[in-house]
Design brief:
The protein is mainly α and 280 residues long. The chain folds into two domains: 139 residues, Four Helix Bundle (Hemerythrin (Met), subunit A) (Up-down Bundle), CATH 1.20.120; 82 residues, Helix Hairpins (Orthogonal Bundle). Helices cover 67% and strands 0% of the residues. The longest helix is centred in the N-terminal third of the chain and has 32 residues. The N terminus is likely disordered.
Length: 280
């Protein structure tokens, strides 16, 4: 009976240690093995992206097309195995799968398999370059990682204000576009209200393609008002985000990844994950 009770205690810790070691190698950059793994991963990503770019050149593709095709599948299988290992070593695989890095890792391998049914989709593999964002952890660029976290937090905090601002801008371009349609009409290029709204958006954002321009004096006067509005409102979202960033300034984050949900951006003195509550 004692043997039956002790057996689970021997199995569970060994499995926990195995997952812990795998997690440290794949997710952490503080150990030599973890850093070596991440550097090797980045070299593989750059090589695979270079192969995809070379394959898009007709002269190179005609000479080395078969070799580049094999290289593409070689790296895709490696990244597929790496993605599955990441899901295996975290306590909450779904949490990682729907995270930013989890989605990027999945998108990095889908195009190759998709190319079996949709020829040409393999060129979407250049999205693998997004995985280079992991270099922030590898090189321990904590100040840059902290700034990135501050920016994300500021954008989230100012989301409602920016939504109200965008609604106001949308209302203005609809009004100005409709007025310009009435004033100029189809003979001057404003053939419909949607096309006139397109002109209002281009003008208010100070892009100014010039493909449509008012010809009448009244239309030019309205265009001047739209331009002035554009210059006056272009700094509004910048000010909103700046205020939120100033409030979040000074927070420091670490590069440690949660062993359960793989989330990063914890405070340097945190002992538990602020996203799932797991022990760090």
């Amino acid at each position: 009976m004692n043997w039956l009770k002790d057996e689970p205690r021997e199995v569970l810790p060994s499995r926990a240690r195995w997952r812990t070691v795998l997690h440290e190698v794949i997710f952490e950059a503080d150990t030599p093995k973890g850093k070596g793994f991440d550097i090797l991963l980045i070299v593989s990503i750059l090589t695979s992206v270079a192969a995809v770019m070379l394959d898009s050149i007709a002269a190179v593709q005609s000479l080395y097309g078969s070799l580049l095709y094999r290289i593409e599948w070689f790296f895709t299988l490696i990244f597929t195995a790496e993605y599955l290992l990441r899901l295996l070593c975290v306590g909450r695989p779904f949490k990682y799968a729907v995270s930013f890095y989890g989605v990027v890792d999945l998108l990095a391998i889908i195009p190759t398999f998709l190319s079996l049914f949709l020829p040409g989709s393999q060129y979407l593999l250049v999205i693998r370059i997004l995985r280079i964002l992991r270099i922030f952890r590898i090189l321990k660029l904590i100040p840059y990682l902290g700034e990135a976290q501050l920016l994300v937090k500021a954008l989230r905090a100012s989301g409602r204000k920016i939504a109200v601002f965008l609604y106001t801008v949308l209302t203005l371009v609809v009004i100005f576009g409709s007025l310009m349609y009435v004033i100029e009409g189809g003979e001057h290029g404003f053939t419909s209200i949607p096309r006139s709204i397109y002109w209002a958006i281009v003008t208010m954002t100070t892009v100014g393609y010039g493909d449509i321009a008012p010809q009448t004096s009244l239309g030019q006067a309205l265009a001047s008002i739209v331009m002035i509005f554009g210059y006056s409102i272009i700094a509004v979202p910048t000010g909103i985000v700046t205020v939120e960033m100033s409030q979040a300034f000074g927070r420091k984050v670490s590069t440690q990844a949660c062993p359960e949900c793989s989330a990063e951006g914890h405070d340097v003195d945190a002992s538990h994950c602020k996203f799932c509550g797991a022990l760090l």
